[in-house]
Structure formats: C-alpha cells, structure tokens
C-alpha cells in the first residue's frame, strides 16, 4: 500500500505541464436524411507536429502558412476519418477552411459534407487522427440528429464506433456528458493534485509544531466530506455561470489561477497556515476550477435543447471521479498515517513534488512559455 500511494503521487507530480488540456480535436456531425454536415477543429500545434505548418521555423504559425497548406491539411485529416451508413461508405469533401480559437490555442477548422446512398439509420465513424504520433490524443465527437445530441470520445482503443440514430435520447446525452466529466478528472492532473493536496492532511492533525495521526477514522472522513462537498458546490456554481455565459474569464487567467491553487494548497501542507477549515479553501478555489471545467464543456459543444442535461451529466461525472479518488485514497492514507513514511515521504515529499509540478504549470501558463 505504501508503494502504491508513493507511486501515485510521483506519477501525478511528474505529469507534463500541459496535462490539464491534452491533445484533442473536435468533430461535429449533423445528420439529416442521407447527408452529413461536418465541422472538424484540429489544433494547429498538432497539425504542425504531424505535417509541418511552420514554414520558416520561427515558432509562430501564421494564417498565411496555414492557408498555404490547406490542401495538405484536408488530405491528412480526411484520410483518417471514415463515415459509413450501414456498410456503405459516405465520401466527404471539404467545403470551407477557417481558423478558430479554443481554450488552449488556435485551431484549423474544416467544414465538410458527406453524402450517403440513403437515409442514415446507423452511422459508423472510424477515427484515426494522430494516433500513430500521439497515443494520448482523443477525438471528441458531437453527433446531432433530429434535435438530439450525443457525444463520444475516440481513442486508439475505441477508434471505430457505431451510432443508431433512433438511440439519440436524453438518457444517452446524460450518460455521454457524464462520461466526459469522469474522463476530464482522470486526465486533468491539476484538479487531481489540488484535491490530493487537501486530502493528504485529512488523516493528520497539527499539534506541538508537527503533524500527528488522527485518533479515529470518523473525524478524517468528516473532514474529507466537508472538503469534497465545498469543492463540489463551488465548481458547480461557476460551471453553470460560465456555461450559460453569465460570467466569462480569459482562459489564460483561469488556467494560471488553477495552477496557483495547487501550489498554495500543497505549500500549506509544508508550512501550515490554514490548519482547520480547509473546506473554505476548497470552496474558494473550487470557484476557479469551475471555470476550467466550463472551458472543457464548452469546447465539447453544448446541445442548446438539452443544456441542463449536459450540465448535470458532466457535473455528475466529475463527482463520480472525485469520489472514486477519495474512496481509494482515504482508507490507505488512514492505515499509513501513524507511520513516519506517510508523514515524511507522502505528506512532505508528495507535497513538495506537487509544488514543483504545479509551479511549472503556473510559470508556463502565466508567461505563455514552454519549460518542459
């Protein structure tokens, strides 16, 4: 158990600085009869890695450089996307090239039309973009038909998926966005590290100038319940406000603030200033993390006719992932709390590693530089 907990902290702390926003593309398909109208947003940094866009190698990709490679971009992308109705291919052709901004930078936008031989009852999507170069890449799909929306994620393990048009129901939307919420926590290392920074001292109490193990499991569990509840309530508030466009903050500011929250939470374990009421810290910074969740949810594309379902589903997915982390972490931490290994290696060493990782994220996001 000791080894498992130590490895988990080391793996998280060693995560890349861009871990909060992994390589994604956004594929929107609207099915109407035998025709599919599509829009595919691909990160310029990914396209540059795959086919080379920066012609003069100055580190900046200009519109002129993108425009000059439009045929190559279209050929590269469409060769890695196959649409079929039943077993019949639906050939696609690009109708427009655009550029758009997402929360993590500039994207090339391909608009295309695919025509099938007859009305589409079941659609097969075969997606293989960038998998040969980046196994962590994901293709995020938004599929619309007859006013209903489904989402899905493509990975090397799930590169081919089938969708029955009759199954695009509200339940599927709730489930799909819930799955996205779970996935976002698993790949959002800054959210995990923030939560772990608050959980690490939950099985300890600060007395006589040092951390000591709590006497019973119940107080630790109650402390964790308050922390998780405060974080949940806070990020739910700002997730809703940001998604509904009531409040909008610059992505760079939000991402920097999230990294800063991780640094401060971990530093408090090393130099305890806030020893009680850490639920208030979770609430305050949870408001910031909610804006980060909203950026991901907006990038996925929200179905306007089922906005509430999407919000509820995504939020429930986030909570399920958080509770899974707590369920694994807390019992193990309680069993180890009386050992010097936990207090020194896990609490102190783990918190120091978290400060190092999150400090790197903060510098990169605030200064817009690449350190790792």
Spatial order of strands in the largest sheet = 5-6-2-1-8-9
Count up the domains: 2
Helix count, DSSP H or I runs of 4 or more residues: 11
CA-CA gap between termini: 31 Å
> Which stretches are poorly predicted, pLDDT < 50 over at least 5 residues?
1-20
What class, by secondary structure content? alpha+beta
Count every beta strand, where a strand is a DSSP E run of 2 or more residues. Answer: 12
Per the principal axes of the C-alpha atoms, what is the gross shape? Answer: globular
Q: Proportion of β residues?
A: 15-25%
In percent, how helical is the residue content?
A: 40-55%
Radius of gyration: 23 Å
Largest sheet: 6 strands, mixed
Mean pLDDT across all amino acids: 86
Order of helices and strands: HEEHHHEEEEEEEEHHEEHHHHH
Please specify the SSE layout and strand pairing.
Blueprint: H1 2-13, E1 24-32, E2 35-43, H2 44-51, H3 63-68, H4 70-78, E3 81-85, E4 88-89, E5 92-102, E6 105-115, E7 122-127, E8 138-145, E9 148-154, E10 160-164, H5 170-187, H6 189-199, E11 204-207, E12 210-213, H7 217-243, H8 251-270, H9 278-300, H10 307-336, H11 340-367
Parallel strand pairs: 1-8
Antiparallel strand pairs: 1-2, 2-6, 3-4, 3-7, 5-6, 7-10, 8-9, 11-12
């Amino acid at each position: 158990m000791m080894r498992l907990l130590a490895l988990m902290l080391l793996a998280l702390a060693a995560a890349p600085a861009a871990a909060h926003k992994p390589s994604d593309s956004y594929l929107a398909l609207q099915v109407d009869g035998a025709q599919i109208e599509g829009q595919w947003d691909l990160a310029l940094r990914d396209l540059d890695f795959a086919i080379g866009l920066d012609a003069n190698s100055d580190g900046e990709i200009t519109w002129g450089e993108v425009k000059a490679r439009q045929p190559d971009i279209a050929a590269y992308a469409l060769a890695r996307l196959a649409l079929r109705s039943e077993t019949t291919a639906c050939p696609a052709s690009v109708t427009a090239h655009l550029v758009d901004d997402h929360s993590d930078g500039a994207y090339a936008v391909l608009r295309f039309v695919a025509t099938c031989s007859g009305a589409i009852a079941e659609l097969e999507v075969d997606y293989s973009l960038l998998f040969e170069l980046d196994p962590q890449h994901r293709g995020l799909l938004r599929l619309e038909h007859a006013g209903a929306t489904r989402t899905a994620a493509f990975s090397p393990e799930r590169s081919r998926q089938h969708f029955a048009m009759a199954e695009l129901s509200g339940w599927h939307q709730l489930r799909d966005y819930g799955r996205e919420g779970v996935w976002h926590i698993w790949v959002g290392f800054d959210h995990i590290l923030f939560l772990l920074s608050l959980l690490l001292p939950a099985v300890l109490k600060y007395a006589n100038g040092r951390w000591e193990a709590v006497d019973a499991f119940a107080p630790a569990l109650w402390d964790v319940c308050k922390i998780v509840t405060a974080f949940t309530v806070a990020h739910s508030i700002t997730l809703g406000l940001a998604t509904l466009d009531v409040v909008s903050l610059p992505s760079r500011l939000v991402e920097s603030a999230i990294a800063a929250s991780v640094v401060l939470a971990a530093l408090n374990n090393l130099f305890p200033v806030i020893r009680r009421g850490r639920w208030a810290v979770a609430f305050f910074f949870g408001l910031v993390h909610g804006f980060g969740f909203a950026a991901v949810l907006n990038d996925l594309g929200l179905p306007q006719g089922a906005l509430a379902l999407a919000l509820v589903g995504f939020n429930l997915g986030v909570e399920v992932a958080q509770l899974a982390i707590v369920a694994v972490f807390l019992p193990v931490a309680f069993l180890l709390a009386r050992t010097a290994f936990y207090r020194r290696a896990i609490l102190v060493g783990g918190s120091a590693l978290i400060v190092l990782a999150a400090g790197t994220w903060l510098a990169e996001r605030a200064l817009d530089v690449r350190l790792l």
